[in-house]
Amino acid sequence: MPPVRIPITDVLDLHTFHPRDLPLLIEDYIEECVRLGFRSVRIVHGKGSGVQKRRVQAALGRNRHVR
After folding, report:
1. Rounded to the nearest 10 degrees, what angle do helices 51-61 and 22-36 cross at?
2. Closest CA to 59 of 36, 41, 35
């Protein structure tokens, strides 16, 4: 399956993505945001049981561009 292209803005809403795709998605998103010159972004993970929130926090914690 070819990659899905989405417009890059300073907000990424994860509601439409499968949780298993989050680590690579977030890594690619942050890299593209850096390339485009964004200084801050917002990642919307939603509510629920907190599983997705923990995955997002773990992915951000491993990214060298995140403070």
Report:
1. 50
2. 41
Residue 25: half-sphere exposure toward Cβ, Cα within 13 Å = 21
Which tens digits make up the pLDDT trace of 6-44?
Answer: 789 999 999 888 888 989 999 999 999 999 999 999 999
Tell the burial category of 37 from Cβ atoms under 10 Å away from its Cβ (0-12, 13-18, 19+): exposed
> Tokens 């939603």 appear where?
46
Strand (E) positions, 1-67? 11-13, 42-44
CB 15 within 8 A of CB 53: no
pLDDT of the residue at 34: 96
